[in-house]
Amino acid sequence: MPASETRSSGAASESVQLFSSRSDDYARFRPTYPEALFAWLADQCATTDTALDLAAGNGQASFPLTRYFRHVLACDASAEQLNAANDWPDVQRFVADAGHLPVQSGRLDLLVVAQALHWFATPDFFAQVRLALKPHGLFCAWCYSLLEVTPAVDALIQKLYGETLAGYWPAGRASVDAGYRDIQAPFAPIECPAFSLEADWEFAELVGYLRTWSAVKQWQKRHGQDPVAEIEAALSSTWGPADRRRPVRWPLHLLTGFPNR
User: Fold this and answer.
1) How many CB atoms neighbour CB 34 within 10 A?
2) 88 vs 163, residue with greater confidence
3) Strands 196-201 and 91-95, sheet pairing
4) Start-end of H helices in 56-96
5) Contacts of 136 (CB under 8 A, 6+ apart)
6) pLDDT in the model for residue 5
7) What are the DSSP calls for 113-145, one per residue?
8) What's the rounded Cα separation, in Å, for the pair 228 and 128?
9) What is the domain extent for residue 67?
10) 160 in a structural domain
């Protein structure tokens, strides 16, 4: 759910266009975050008045926050992403770049960034985080990389990811592969429980998800072919019957702390 990238204005514009063009697919095929994550985040906050989901995309992190916070804000650089879902109950959404947050200083109890920090993890961004959060406000960014299904399915996906699509991932993707361990946040991170995304998918959902990858779109633009289609038969063979449901898992990697302590 990426917002614009302040490291490079050209890359920012390209990434926003890329994810905006796939907003419906994101809403349909992207996995949902575990409820336990949001309950844990609320428990870490001194008060639960206002939370902001930055680079909110289609609201996958915004909606669960409404069960724990009185006011939930959601912003993204892409209006198309924010409009992918017509109804955002109890969420105030607005278009904003991560580098220019129109949020009152000291307002937020919690600021979350789901699968997007690698686009704008700059000193200027973290300075804005400090201003937006209350003195004991919590910051949490998380990411997930490759899914886990079965060894045979995983091997095909890893080859697509690391070989076919090598060189087609946007700048910053290496941070996701590193689980955000390479991002130097200006605060002491706190220990977090182990969380993961989980889904129960048929084969069509798997290939639909793979086609939401940004590098797939970039490869397709360059070669005029669908790289997922090139491995679809092999994937199908290892998956089994198309309507067979398999458990799918993505480990979450969190960067969390209290920037103003």
Assistant:
1) 15
2) 163
3) unpaired
4) 62-65, 79-82
5) 45, 46, 258, 260, 261
6) 32
7) EES-GGGT--HHHHHHHHHHEEEEEEEEEEE--
8) 39
9) 9-145+172-196+247-257
10) no
8 Å CB contact between 134 and 106: yes
Q: What is the mean pLDDT of the chain?
A: 89
Distance of alpha carbon 130 from the chain centroid: 21
Q: Which helix (H) or strand (E) holds 75?
A: strand 71-76
Work out the angle at residue 120's Cα, subtended by the Cα atoms of residues 62 and 144, and round it to the nearest 5 degrees. Answer: 55
Residue 9 has pLDDT above 70, yes or no: no
pTM, entire model: 0.86
Question: Residue 158 domain-assigned?
Answer: no
Is residue 23 scored above 60 in pLDDT? no
Domain membership of residue 230 (yes or no) is: no
DSSP 3-state of 171: coil
Assess if residue 216 is contained within a domain: no
- CATH code of 63's domain: 3.40.50.150
pLDDT tens-digit map of 106-156? 999 999 999 999 999 999 999 999 999 999 999 999 999 899 999 999 999
SS3 158: helix
Number of domains into which the chain is organized: 1
Number of alpha carbons in the 13 Å side-chain half-sphere of residue 82 = 20
User: What's the pLDDT score for residue 98?
Assistant: 87
Mean pLDDT of all residues in 149-164: 97
Question: Angle, nearest 10°, between helix axes 203-210 and 227-239?
Answer: 150
